[in-house]
Amino acid sequence: MFCIHTKELCFPQNTLIKYFQQITDPYYADVKQWKRDYDRCEMVLFANQCIPKICVCGGPITLATDDKGMSYYECKEYEDDGLRIRHRCFDAIKEELEELKKKVAEEANNRMNDDELHSRHRCFDAIEEELLELKNEVAEESNSRMKMKDELKEMREDIRLLKELLPVGKMKQGDYSVREYNTKFLAGGLLDIHGEGTLVKMYREGLREDIRSKIGKTVFSTLGEIMQEALDVDEGGRPCDRSVSPT
């Protein structure tokens, strides 16, 4: 018998022949297929465990996907701080620890004064102390997250108000002519946001003081009417037919 050498291993010839027979035998091919099917089933079971049908609290869930494409779920009936499952784990550990301490105390009483378990008592005390510290850290992190959510909500509201106010700040006539101001106002994207009465008020407030004083307190029902009136005043024309909108 001789051996076939590789860089690191030495295989007997008979072993290699049996190996090649196994990988070419249809029986082993079926075994491999069974292994692949089992791996797929295991992956499906793992996925079902990761994304359950209901939440751990018993409430319904909704599925979501983050920016990286990872799936997760959120409970519909519970305001999730992201740490409530960890809270349940801490409570379970504490409950189990209390049971162990009771058993150790009973065993110690049976052994009279010297229970020979003082080191185990110290371990339990250390575990309980560490568990309390972890619960405090989780509580602080939970409060911090809730505070950040409130701050984020306020910031979004401020951004929304700024977006609404930003176009209004731009709609000032300044050194523009009324015709240029009309074009700028119509292109500002305000027509899709505000009603006719609000648009008339915003347009009047954006006019120069001299144009606004000449128009006076005349009531206009549409934006087209006040635009045409301001255009007539600026260009020295006669008052317009208010039923015609500016082009």
TrEMBL record:
Coiled coil regions in record: 90-165
Key word Coiled coil present: yes
Top-level taxon of the source organism: Eukaryota
Keywords: Coiled coil
Tagged with keyword Coiled coil: yes
Protein name (record): Uncharacterized protein
Lineage: Eukaryota, Viridiplantae, Streptophyta, Embryophyta, Tracheophyta
